[in-house]
Amino acid sequence: MLERLIPKQRATSTRLGGILILVGETMFLFSILNFMMITRLQYYSSGDSFARTIFPEYYFFLLSMFIVAFIGMWLTYVYIFPSKQKFSQEQAVKDDRSPMYNRLVQMHDEMREMQSMVKELQEKVDSLSKEGQK
What we know:
Largest sheet: none
Distance between the termini: 69 Å
Structural class: mainly alpha
Number of strands: 0
Mean pLDDT: 87
């Protein structure tokens, strides 16, 4: 029943994915600039002096924000990335979406076939050498 609720995914070109990855990678740079500007506004806000009470200098405040961001990056690296990678790999091999995976499966089947042929040939050579020794 759950399968009927989940929509089928469409086969598309790589352009849309490439654009999204490029935008996502460049947005990180804008996020750093945005973060720096927002911390200045928050620290020097006249309506909220809480940050200035705890951190007497702006640079201490900024350092603490970087520490919080570093902890977030560490948690993401340890917990989120493995999950995303596993999900991504599962999606890639689902419904013949990955040409590389399909080729790898094909090569694996061919390799098994060649191994069985080599084994048969080895058995024939062994039997012929035994007959030749008699």
